[in-house]
Amino acid sequence: MRITIINGPNLNRLGTRQPQIYGTRSMEQVMVDIQQRWPDVYFTYRQSNHEGDIIDYIQAAENEDGIVLNAGGYTHTSVAIRDAVVNCACPVVEVHISDIKQREPFRRISLLTDVCVKTIIGKGTDGYQEAIDYIIGSNH
After folding, report:
1. All structural domains of the chain
2. What is the dihedral of CA 11, 13, 19, 22, to 10 degrees?
3. What is the pTM of this model?
4. Chain segment 77-87, per-residue pLDDT in tens
5. Nearest-angstrom CA–CA distance, 10 and 18
6. Which residues have a catalytic role annotated?
């Protein structure tokens, strides 16, 4: 099984960026936990602060078993990332560490939710594991 995890802008600062919202765990720590929990799954991790890179990552992973996508701030603004998800051949699960529905009004709108197979919000970094569980369960 192959799963790609894609993070958008500013998520490279996870663990130090606004820890009261995003927690204190780095993405490196999250990825170690993920690989230990699913040692037989091949994970690819990608992060970019650039919209086009995220689109390229989605397109490159479309033949895998699934994508876990935290598009960060692009969730609320990027029709181009939405279009990449629509045209993706594999299931895409949207993840947000914080509860975007309880944040600023502009963050409450996701351009991705209705084109992803599942959306997980407000579960902290555990949301990534929930997304992986969903993808694995959907591929049996």
Report:
1. 2-138 (3.40.50.9100)
2. 10
3. 0.92
4. 999 999 999 99
5. 11
6. 22, 96
